[in-house]
User: Which sequence fits this backbone?
């Protein structure tokens, strides 16, 4: 598995990169050379934020954690990523021929948390249709706040395209503008 380590606002030395690669080795053991891991570290005040993005067979898994110590933050992020994999356990069991390594991991795990006996076949539990009204991104943010939602889909009158505004964890807002 290819591991890329990036530091945003921090220099990552070879010693730290080696320790991070050692911690990521468990994923390499299960998935081999198929996927890639991107580890991004950035300081946020006196804490370090570690974000790991795993790309495997067209799927993307992402986890983030922060701590004062970089290696502790890496451990917490790896635990979150493993938790995501465990949540997908029934899907992996159904496709065990495609994921033989993950089956070994789940067997060694001892049947930890997130065992789901039955996964519903229909993932969509509610369908909603609505009219897209042309508006600016500022109007969309106002609408988002008035509705109390985490995101809002609208027709942007400036770019004449369907866009999405969303509330970020840091309290700000994000804007998704698709390219056609």
Assistant:
């Amino acid at each position: 598995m290819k591991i890329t380590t990036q530091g945003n606002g921090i220099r990552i030395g070879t010693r730290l990169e080696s320790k991070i690669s050692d911690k990521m080795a468990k994923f390499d053991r299960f998935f081999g050379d198929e996927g890639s891991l991107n580890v991004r570290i950035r300081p946020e005040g006196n804490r370090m934020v570690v974000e790991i993005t795993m790309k495997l067979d067209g799927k993307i898994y992402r986890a983030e954690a922060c701590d004062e110590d970089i290696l502790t933050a890496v451990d917490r992020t790896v635990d979150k990523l493993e938790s995501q994999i465990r949540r997908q356990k029934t899907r992996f069991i159904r496709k065990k021929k495609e994921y033989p390594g993950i089956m070994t991991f789940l067997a060694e795990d001892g049947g930890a948390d997130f065992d789901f006996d039955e996964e519903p076949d229909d993932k969509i539990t509610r369908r909603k249709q609505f009219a897209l009204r042309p508006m600016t991104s500022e109007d969309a943010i106002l609408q988002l706040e008035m509705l109390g939602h985490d995101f809002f889909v609208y027709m942007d009158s400036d770019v004449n395209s369907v866009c999405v505004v969303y509330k970020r964890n840091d309290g700000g807002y994000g804007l998704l503008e698709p390219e056609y």
About this structure: Confidence is low (pLDDT under 50) at residues 113-118. The longest strand covers residues 47-56.
